[in-house]
Amino acid sequence: MTTTPELPGTRPEPPEARPALPGTRPELPGTRPATEWLADAVLYQIYPQSFADADGDGIGDFAGIEQRLDHLAWLGVNTVWLNPCFASPFADAGYDVSDYLTVAPRYGTNEDLARLADSARRRGIRVLLDLVAGHTSDRHPWFTASADDPSDHRYIWADAGKDPGDGFQPSPGTRPGWYKPNFFPSQPALNFGYARTHPEEPWRQPVDAEGPRANRRALREIMEHWLGLGLSGFRVDMAASLVKDDPGHAESARLWREMRDWLDTEHPRAALLSEWGDPAVSVPAGFHADFFLQFGAADDGLKLRSLWNNSTGTVSEQWAPLEPYFGADGAGSPGTFLDGWKAATTAISEAGHGGFVALPTANHDFSRLACGPRTAEQLPAAFAFQLTWPTLPAVYYGDEIGMRYVPGLPEHEGSVLGPRYNRAGSRTPMQWDSTANAGFSTAPPERLYLPVDPDPARPTVAAQRADPGSLLSLVRRLIALRKATPELGSAGGTQVLHAGYPFVYVRGGRYLVVVNPRREKAEFALPEGVGGGEPVEAEGVVVNAGLVTAAGFGYGILDLGHAGAAGAR
């Protein structure tokens, strides 16, 4: 087997050989390990192209994010993850990496990213990067070299005399044969081996072949490089995609446990989150946390979709129509989510490694909460649930003010995945204020990364900060309440009293939570011995003589430590 050589510029210098960058400093001594600080995390996802543009070129950048850190600190989030910001031709919005050790010039420099991480840390905010581990761009030097070198096994190459099928693409170089992509043809899959080999398919190399071993080494080197510049960890893109033909993900789990063991030894404060969509598998496999997503697991993301997806915005043709629980008609159920959450938390507990399930409001690939028929008055109940349930809450940028999915946008940087699946609608510029371009950029509108929501009534941060009754103000209060109240966090106990309309549960034996996502009022008789309590944060919820009455779109968090009838504030 030929050893895959390291290419020039892909191996970082050891930390002691690199000059200190301006504005960077190591993690403070005594900082808690990732397993501890993540328990208190409130995550916030930033799509960097669309968050804040400091240099006026129409595309968001690190300096723009740094200028807006005070918003995040004021809101109360303490962990930010950025969509990929490495050098890229941007055929897939940065998920096609051409250099893992250098940031894309549209965002700034490596020094700018290090400065951003340091500025965030000074505000109590950790910054995580999105690590695209399973594939590169077809313009990455690794791939262009591999396409001309039949002895190179960093990628999956079928050198047979006929098309092997299974999505393989013809070689663009002098090397004969075909390569396997992971997603778009421009994203060749890195070779981490196959769990099952076959003599008639020699491209199915075992996971311990030299090519897969070289790629595992490269992953550690990439993570080492960015952790050395002050970043606090990674969210790993398509984490289940590395080892191919892996029934039960046994070899994938072995790979990620190896990475986790290395992190625990060398960087115990660094977090490793996954885009797997199946926490019952991925967290025992070595990740600190995994997200319920619109895909993943045997049910293809049904757990998340059963909460939010209302068949508008981003819609896959293979999804069966369903009514979400957070729908005004009240035709859904939280049961699918509850069953999945219980199964995941049980699997995580039994594995004994610790870890968390993360619940996002949306993401860059999925419709925002405010999408289609879901109106602004429906959003408070959704946040009341998300920020009081024992998952790690993940707020997608702009959801805290109720930014909407914008329909009808043109394809941009690979945004369109199907006839009803255009991701651009969830990637529009952050709406900061009422100035030009909603305060996102000073560039002419035609130069913006994506158009600003054209609705003249679009919500803004500035207007909602000035309004104590706004969604933004509510989200801030709910985050503060969660952080100040252990019973409402990830470790507090949970007792579901009613899995219907309204959804009623008790956190930590003390706080009664009532959520009614439908437009019609809903009632529930509390079990004997459960009192009404005192409202902590409520709208449209009344408890009287053991009967909970929740107005349409009502929600309530009540402190059972205070006896007596309770009503909405």
The main pleated sheet reads as: 8 strands, parallel, barrel
Average pLDDT, all residues: 93
Distance between the termini: 71 Å
Global Rg: 24 Å
Total beta strands: 21
Unreliable spans are 1-30, 563-569
Anisotropy-based shape: globular
User: Going across the major beta sheet, what is the strand order?
Assistant: 1-2-5-9-10-11-12-13
Helix-strand category: alpha/beta
DSSP summary: helix tally: 13
Helix share, percent: 10-25%
**What is the strand content?**
15-25%
Protein name: Oligo-1,6-glucosidase
Pfam families: Alpha-amylase
Region (Disordered): 1-32
Family: Belongs to the glycosyl hydrolase 13 family.
Strand and helix map with partners:
Blueprint: H1 34-37, E1 43-46, H2 62-67, H3 69-75, E2 79-82, E3 86-87, E4 99-103, H4 110-122, E5 126-132, H5 141-146, E6 157-158, E7 169-170, E8 178-179, H6 210-228, E9 233-237, H7 250-266, E10 271-274, H8 279-282, E11 289-291, H9 302-308, H10 335-351, E12 356-360, H11 379-386, E13 392-396, E14 416-418, E15 421-422, H12 461-465, H13 471-484, E16 494-499, E17 503-507, E18 511-515, E19 522-525, E20 534-544, E21 547-559
Parallel strand pairs: 1-2, 1-13, 2-5, 5-9, 9-10, 10-11, 11-12, 12-13
Antiparallel strand pairs: 3-4, 6-8, 7-8, 14-15, 16-17, 17-18, 18-21, 19-21, 20-21
Helix pairs in contact: 9-10, 11-13
Domain Glycosyl hydrolase family 13 catalytic: 45-447
Region (Disordered): 1-32
Pfam families: Alpha-amylase
